[in-house]
Automatic annotation (TrEMBL):
It is found in: Cell membrane. SMART domains: Cation_ATPase_N (SM00831). This is HAD-IC family P-type ATPase. It is a multi-pass membrane protein. The chain crosses the membrane at residues 52-75, 81-100, 245-264, 270-290, 686-710, 716-738, 759-782. The lineage of its organism: Bacteria, Bacillati, Bacillota, Bacilli, Lactobacillales. Its main location: membrane. It comes from the Bacteria. Belongs to the cation transport ATPase (P-type) (TC 3.A.3) family. Type IIA subfamily.
Length: 802
């Protein structure tokens, strides 16, 4: 069977065994609900408390300590056994409870995606829970409705949808029941279909449901999340290396003692016991606890900066980030259309300031702020855009401004509010709407006729080329307007033209209005953009100065993406690759290198985003992928660090991510990277300290064995040193502030291991000096008239202080 967008409406309804006028019967709907299940996207698998506990137990250091505890128990040393097990509990439970608390913080963000929707069943229009929608249901979709399932449009009127959560494009998509396609089409070009998780911005339509739940396009993308691999974080890799180094040190120490004991005819059981003591001395028992506390502190710091991290290792992984692959719409830009420039018919040019749909903003001319109310032509032009409009701006419960209606109309409504003009207030002042020709994809314009004080005005707004063909103005004026239009277009702006007829005396029916456009004159043009987020400029600069490559990923046109990238300062913004080029080159030998060198990826699909992330990882990049839409989710899940938007992000994107930005600021990512770098610096400091301290114990005990002397300290002394004495200085190192150059140096190389020559040289040097000093003290005290307990206590005190 062909795809639904490729077959006629009657065939689609017949295949789905539905009825265009009456919909499904309730009995049929109940049967299909039982067969297909609820219309819900399956939530990602939560990590159970038992799994979290196991993740903290499944650690080489834990296994070594368990083995030491078992041998101590077998040798009837109960005090030593209890002490080792207490060390284990401290390390394991600290990590478990910290991660459990983090997971519960994330779960508290989850909300229901859908609520209710309107369907026709048994010939009656009724409202039902969106989760009860089934294939074959006839939906009635109106302006402002969230779409609960995928469907084929069977009839529509001036119908448009916002599909940015699915495709990444911020502009409304015109829809029509009459469209039909022979060839395969991407989602964004299927004009006869609607998709779950998107919303209606204009008009109304009747739709037959084709897919629900996980079979929808949103569901398919959500299902792709299970396919992405969970790679080890840089910290996991480093700690694995450390664990192996610890095992090696413990084995060498143990074997050396056994050999020394055999050669000097020492009792074998005694030598086994000493080997256990050395093994315990080699293990930095405090390290898991200090590591967990350090990462937990980093998690809290990031939360204060509006970044909610879902797993402790992700805190440090951020510090290793070498590439931020950022979705454009809603991440680098506002995902809110805004009027940024105006030009009147006399070529007077104005700039508009502000953010998205926020009514705060000013009008500037030649860089200087002006009072718009002092300029009659400007006010009449803006007023025309406000009146020729059906959208309105609301504030949601988070205080964010949102448009109800078409985003382009929303930009004009916001522009009006910036100069004190509001459609409802104008109508109260006497402006009466007499007629309206709604916007349609065929006409590409909207017309209204208003009357005030017995004087009628016709206003038309729409696509520049269409309006220019309708107006009656000189060729010179038209040429000037074309130049202005080209200037706006070169900046990646969508251009809306507004024209009017003063003293309109034509008819008021739609047909009469269309035939009465003589004398139409352009008032001006509006350049509309999805503006960059205010913090994007500075954050991109900071990231690039820190050696981090910033790459933009978008569903927009390449030219538009390149212009936005240039505006916010992304390096190499001219290096662009489209989704089609990715599909063509993905099997090439140099594909990964090409992706690594490309700054802008345009017209990409969800699969393309995953291919980009995979290619970058193959180039040994640590990738932080940001996004807010359903289409971003697979790439968020596959990246080393997936970063979702908390306010505008979809539920699927939040599920797939490692970190959620509760303020949606791109700059928060850079703040988090800085915190990650600080954490790794401090991890190096305290790990070096802990290993040096353990080296002291190994050197002192080993020297005593070689010289056939008693044990300089008891096993409980070692545990006390490792768990109590060492932990306070290690903790203080973990709270060290940032080094001055933390964001002035490049990302940490994967070759920059914790366990390197510098690390080993430093801990051996420190450990040998203090260890030999402790041994010398021990040797001196043995020659005196002191008890064994006194000597061990003195050596223990010296080690603690040293």
């Amino acid at each position: 069977m062909k795809e639904y967008y490729q077959i006629p409406i009657d065939k689609t309804i017949e295949y789905l065994k539905s009825n265009q006028q009456k919909g499904l019967t309730q009995q049929t709907a109940d049967q299909r609900l039982a067969e297909n299940g609820l219309n819900e996207i399956q939530q990602g698998k939560k990590t159970s408390p038992w799994k979290l506990l196991w993740n903290n137990i499944n650690n080489l250091i834990v296994y070594l300590l368990l083995a030491a505890a078992a041998i101590s128990f077998a040798m009837d040393d109960l005090a030593e056994t209890i002490a080792i097990l207490l060390a284990l509990l401290l390390a394991v439970l600290t990590g478990f409870f910290t991660e459990l608390k983090a997971q519960k913080s994330v779960e508290s963000l989850q909300d229901m995606i859908y609520t209710t929707t309107t369907v026709i069943r048994d010939g009656k229009t009724q409202t039902i829970e969106a989760s009860k929608v089934v294939p074959g249901d006839i939906l009635l979709l109106r302006e402002g409705d969230a779409i609960a399932a995928d469907g084929r449009i069977i009839s529509s009127n001036n119908f448009a949808c916002i599909e940015s959560s699915l495709t990444g494009e911020s502009e409304a998509v015109e829809k029509s029941a009459d469209e039909i396609y022979e060839e395969e089409m991407p989602l964004g070009d299927q004009k006869n279909m609607v998709f779950a998780g998107t919303a209606v911005t204009r008009g109304y339509a009747y739709v037959v449901v084709t897919e629900t739940a996980m079979a929808t396009e949103m569901g398919k993308i959500s299902g792709m999340l299970d396919e992405a691999s969970d790679d080890k974080t840089p910290l996991d890799i480093e700690l694995d290396k450390l664990s192996k180094a610890i095992i090696l040190a413990a084995l060498i120490a143990g074997v050396a003692v056994l050999v020394a004991g055999v050669l000097t005819d020492k009792p074998f059981v005694e030598m086994i016991h000493i080997s256990i003591i050395l093994a315990v001395a080699a293990i930095p028992e405090a390290m898991p606890a200090v590591e967990t506390i350090t990462l937990s502190k980093g998690m809290r710091t990031m939360a204060q900066h509006k970044a909610l991290v879902k797993a402790l290792p992700a805190v440090e992984t951020l510090g290793a980030t070498s590439v931020i692959a950022s979705d454009k719409t809603g991440t680098l830009t506002e995902n809110q259309m805004m009027a940024s420039e105006l030009v009147l018919s006399d070529e007077t040019h104005y700039e508009v300031t502000g953010e998205g749909y926020d009514p705060e903003g000013t009008i500037k001319k030649d860089g200087e702020q002006i009072k718009a109310s002092n300029n009659q032509n400007l006010m009449e032009f803006i007023q025309a855009g406000v009146l020729c409009n059906v959208a309105h701006i609301d504030q949601n419960k988070e205080g964010q401004y949102e448009v109800v209606g078409d985003p382009t109309d929303g930009a004009l409504v916001t522009l009006g509010k910036k100069v004190g003009l509001d459609r409802e207030e104008l109508e109260k002042e006497g402006y009466e709407k007499l007629a309206e020709v709604p916007f349609s994809s065929e006409n590409k314009y909207m017309i209204v006729v208003y009357e005030k004080d017995e004087q009628r005005q016709l206003i038309i707004k729409g696509a520049f080329d269409v309006i220019l063909d309708l107006v009656e103005q000189s060729q010179e004026t038209k040429d000037a307007l074309r130049r202005q239009n080209e200037g706006f277009a070169e900046k990646g702006q969508r251009v809306i033209a507004i024209a009017s007829i003063e003293n309109y005396d034509g008819g008021l029916s739609e047909e009469e209005i269309k035939n009465s456009l003589d004398g139409l004159k352009v008032q001006g043009l509006v350049g509309i953009i999805d503006p960059p987020r205010p913090d994007a400029y500075e954050s991109v600069e900071i990231a690039q100065n820190a050696g981090i490559k910033v790459k933009m990923i978008t569903g927009d046109h390449p030219k538009t993406a390149s212009i936005i990238a240039k505006d916010i300062g992304i390096a190499d913004y001219e290096k662009i690759m489209t989704g089609k080029e990715i599909d063509e080159q993905v099997d090439n030998d140099d594909f990964e290198e090409t992706v690594d060198e490309t700054a802008i990826f345009a017209r990409v699909s969800p699969e393309n985003k995953m291919q980009i992330v995979t290619a970058l990882k193959k180039e040994n990049e640590v990738v932080s992928m940001t996004g807010d839409g359903v289409n971003d989710a697979p790439a968020l899940n596959d990246a080393n660090i997936g970063v979702a938007m908390g306010i505008r992000g979809t539920e699927v994107a939040k599920e797939a991510s490692d970190m959620i930005l509760t303020d949606d600021r791109f700059g928060t990512i850079v703040d988090a990277v800085k915190e990650g770098r600080i954490i790794f610096d401090n991890i190096k400091k305290y790990v070096s300290f802990l290993f040096a301290c353990n080296m002291v114990e190994i050197v002192t005990i080993f020297a005593s064995v070689v010289f056939l002397l008693p044990m300089p300290i008891a096993p409980l002394h070692i545990l006390f040193l490792n768990l109590i004495i060492d932990i306070a200085p290690a903790m203080s190192l973990s709270f060290e502030p940032a080094e001055d150059d933390v964001m002035a140096r490049g990302p940490r190389s994967k070759k920059d291991s914790l366990v390197n020559r510098h690390f080993l040289t430093r801990i051996i040097f420190s450990g040998v000096i203090i260890g030999l000093s402790a041994f010398v003290l021990f040797r001196i005290l043995l020659n005196g008239d002191h008890s064994n307990e006194y000597v061990q206590s003195a050596v223990f005190s010296f080690m603690a202080i040293a």
